[in-house]
Structures are given as structure tokens and as C-alpha cells.
Specification:
Strand content: 15-25%
Number of helices: 12
Distance between the termini: 103 Å
Strand order of the largest sheet: 2-1-5-4-3
Radius of gyration: 45 Å
CATH superfamily of the largest domain: PAS domain
Number of domains: 2
CATH architecture of the largest domain: 2-Layer Sandwich
CATH topology of the largest domain: Beta-Lactamase
Largest sheet: 5 strands, antiparallel
Length: about 425
């Protein structure tokens, strides 16, 4: 199928869809408007009837109510609005007047009448069984005495909708045919012929006639396309430069991604603290710095008490949330120069640079108290009804290796557990080392 035929088909389809969409919306809008008009006019007539019936209904003058409905029944004016049956019911749903005399004294138990009696406002509802609209208006005279109900025939409304539908569809077909013809002629002149010329130029260049060019002089989109095509060769070098710049940018992004991966490799995925590997790296660096500048350094090892019991009771996901909460407490209470790490499982390591033993002990005790006072999920199942930690504090003596300092802090932590948990214990100073002669 050639481009010309495809254009014809697409233009006809587009115009038909547009026109029929417009027609359908027009029909729907007119249908909605006719239904609204029928409802509004019916409500106006029913309000006038309710106003004239309010006093007779309040005084139970049934004959007068019958006379009012009889006048309405004889008057063709209200039938012009489609009202076919009108009833006056009291507050108990009993018919006290009706255009059908056989209905007098009957009790209206249908859902619409029940809803109308319960409502203080005019109501409307489409009938599912018949081509009718159900209306109601409260009858009031100081107090609510009853309700006027009516059935409105929609036959005339639907007849007018059917006539409008045929008229609109006919207009849509006529306009579609006319617009499709006009659009096709315009497209053939303005787009199809220039596109054929451009196709010929492309084929010539493909076949080796590199001097072929699209004729200049057009200022529309096809002319712009021809100019872009004529400049294509000159733009190759610019495209090459852009490609090199993109490669450089991608390389930069890759380096940044590698740095982020390196950071992730040193960060605990659950708590966001430094991981085991990063902890040992930080500890080695901080010991070198303390040795170089003669500054104190303290290490605190922390373990969550009865954590296995907690996991057995609440499950590992809940245990993970507890570890996250404790890690967040450490982040908030430690200095920016301090280093908190998840050493493994439920054990944490805290490196406190430039911190003497007394200050480190206070920090450890404050952290123990903070965890005890924190409202952690599931803590009521733990001994004493609280999630607690045990901490061991050790001060670097200026000579010992990182492993020795870590062993002393770890041993102090286990001593804290032996003394009852939920506390901090200070490691004794290491034995004096003999200075080699």
C-alpha cells in the first residue's frame, strides 16, 4: 500500500472518528439535557400541586384533595410535562389522594416512596421496570404533613433523543466526507508531492549521486527537512565530538559509581554504620593518629542483651528493627569524629578518638541508659521488660596493638554481662611492659 493510499485511509478514519466522537458527545449532552428538563418541569408542576394540597392534607380534608387532583387530571397542561400518575401520601405512606381512585387508602411500601418520606427535599429516580421518572416533593404547611409523588413518562424525551440521534449522525457523515476530501487535496499538494521529491533525492544519494540536493525555497516543514538532509554530512564531525563528550561523561559516572560501590562495601547494609572490615580500618588509622600526636583513644564494645531470646520470640525482621533503632541512638549521641560500627550480629564497636577513659566510660553509661529508656518494639518480652545492652570500655595504653585493645574491650563487655547486663564495665589496664635494654 503506497503512501498516498495510506494517507487517504488515515485522513478518512481520522475525520470519521472525530465527527462521530463529536456526534456521540452531542447526543449524550442533548440526552442529559432533555432528562434534566423533564425532571425540572415535573418537579415544578409537583411543587405547585404540593403547595395547593398542604392545607387540605394538614386538616385531613380528603374530598378537597380529591377535587384538586381531579382538576389536575382534567387539565392537560400538567400532562404536557409527561405526568401520568400523581399521588398524595401521608407521613405513614397511606395514599390519601390519587389520580387513580382505586389506589385510595393503599399503603405505598416501595423503596422510592420510603426514601421520599424520609427525605426533606424533592427527590427523583429513574424507574427500572418502566420508561418512567419517579418524582417526589414534601407537602408542608408549617410542618411536614406528607409527600406528593408522581410518575413522569419519558416516551417523548426518548422520541426526541432518537430524532436528534439520526439528525446528528447524518450531519456527521456529510461533514466527514467533505472534510476528508478537503484534507486529502491539501495534503497532496502541500506534503505528498514534496515528500516524493525528497524520496528521489535520497535514492540518488544512495546510488552514489552525492551532489543531489533537495531544492531550496520552501519554508515549511518539508523545506526544513530538506535543509537538514543537505547539512547531514557537515554535522557528522559535530556528532563525533558529542559522542566523545558522552563517553567522557559516562566514564565519569562510572568512576562515581565505583566510588559508591567502594563505600557500600565498607557500610553495613542494615544499620548504615561502618561494617566489620571498615571498623578494623578505622581502628588502625585512629591508633596511628593517636600514637603520632600523643592523644588518648578509647574503644567501647557493645552487645545487645538476650538478643537470641528476642529473635526467637519476635522473629528476625523485628530484631533487625531493634538493631536499626540502637544504631540510630549511637548516631545521635556520638560526636562526628567518633566511629560507630556493626562488628557482627548484635555486637557493635565504638571508636572514640581523643577520649580519656573517664569520658569514654560516661559515654558508654549514657548509651546504656539511652537504650534502656528507648521505646523499642517488643521490649516487653525481654527480661525486666526492656531491651538493654552491655558495654565494655578500654583505653589504649599507648603501646598495645589493635587486637590487644579489642580483646580487652571485648572481655570487659562480657564482664558486664556477668555482673548482670544493662551496664558498662571498664577493662583493667594492661600489665606494664618491660622496656627492652
Amino acid at each position: 500500500m503506497g503512501l498516498r493510499v495510506r494517507v487517504i485511509v488515515l485522513v478518512v478514519i481520522a475525520v470519521l472518528v472525530t465527527q462521530f466522537s463529536w456526534g456521540i458527545r452531542r447526543i449524550q449532552n442533548e440526552s442529559d439535557q432533555l432528562h434534566q428538563d423533564a425532571e425540572r418541569h415535573g418537579q415544578e408542576v409537583l411543587r405547585a400541586l404540593a403547595a395547593s394540597c398542604s392545607v387540605p392534607l394538614a386538616t385531613r380534608r380528603i374530598e378537597e384533595l380529591d377535587a384538586i387532583l381531579a382538576r389536575f387530571d382534567d387539565d392537560n397542561e400538567w400532562k404536557r410535562f409527561g405526568l401520568v400518575k400523581v399521588a398524595i401520601v401521608d407521613a405513614d405512606g397511606v395514599v390519601v389522594a390519587h389520580t387513580d381512585a382505586s389506589q385510595f387508602g393503599s399503603v405505598q411500601t416501595d423503596a422510592f416512596t420510603a426514601a421520599a418520606l424520609a427525605s426533606d427535599h424533592a427527590t427523583a429516580q429513574a424507574s427500572e421496570e418502566e420508561n418512567l421518572l419517579l418524582l417526589s416533593v414534601p407537602v408542608t404547611s408549617g410542618l411536614r404533613w406528607g409527600t406528593a409523588t408522581a410518575k413522569v413518562s419519558l416516551d417523548e424525551v426518548h422520541s426526541r433523543i432518537a430524532r436528534s440521534r439520526m439528525e446528528i449522525l447524518g450531519v456527521s457523515l456529510g461533514m466527514s466526507a467533505f472534510l476528508a476530501l478537503v484534507l486529502y487535496i491539501g495534503l497532496a499538494i502541500q506534503a505528498l508531492r514534496p515528500l516524493e521529491q525528497l524520496t528521489t533525492v535520497v535514492r540518488n544519494i544512495r546510488d552514489g549521486t552525492l551532489q543531489a540536493r533537495f531544492p531550496k525555497g520552501r519554508s515549511d516543514e518539508v523545506g526544513i527537512l530538506g535543509e537538514v538532509f543537505n547539512e547531514m554530512a557537515d554535522q557528522l564531525q559535530a556528532y563525533t565530538v558529542q559522542l566523545e563528550e558522552k563517553v567522557a561523561a559516562r566514564t565519569e559516572e562510572l568512576e562515581a559509581a565505583n566510588e559508591e560501590l567502594a563505600l557500600l562495601a565498607r557500610t553495613d547494609g542494615l544499620t548504615g554504620l561502618a561494617n566489620h572490615r571498615a571498623f578494623h580500618e578505622h581502628l588502625g588509622r585512629e591508633l596511628d593518629r593517636a600514637r603520632r600526636y600523643g592523644q588518648p583513644l578509647s574503644l567501647v564494645m557493645v552487645d545487645v542483651d538476650h538478643f537470641k531470646l528476642y529473635n526467637d520470640t519476635h522473629g528476625h525482621p523485628a530484631g533487625d528493627r531493634v538493631l536499626e533503632g540502637i544504631a540510630e541512638l549511637f548516631r545521635r549521641r556520638l560526636r562526628s569524629v567518633d566511629i560507630a560500627a556493626r562488628y557482627g550480629g548484635e555486637e557493635f564497636g565504638l571508636i572514640l578518638p581523643a577520649t580519656p577513659l573517664e569520658a569514654a566510660t560516661r559515654v558508654a553509661e549514657q548509651l546504656v541508659a539511652a537504650v534502656r529508656e528507648a521505646a523499642l518494639v517488643g521490649e516487653e518480652s525481654q527480661p525486666n521488660g526492656k531491651v538493654t545492652i552491655s558495654a565494655g570500655v578500654a583505653r589504649w595504653d599507648g603501646n598495645e596493638a589493635a587486637t590487644e585493645l579489642l580483646q580487652r574491650a571485648d572481655a570487659a563487655m562480657y564482664r558486664a554481662k556477668q555482673f548482670g547486663r544493662d551496664r558498662a564495665h571498664v577493662a583493667p589496664s594492661p600489665p606494664l611492659r618491660e622496656t627492652p635494654r
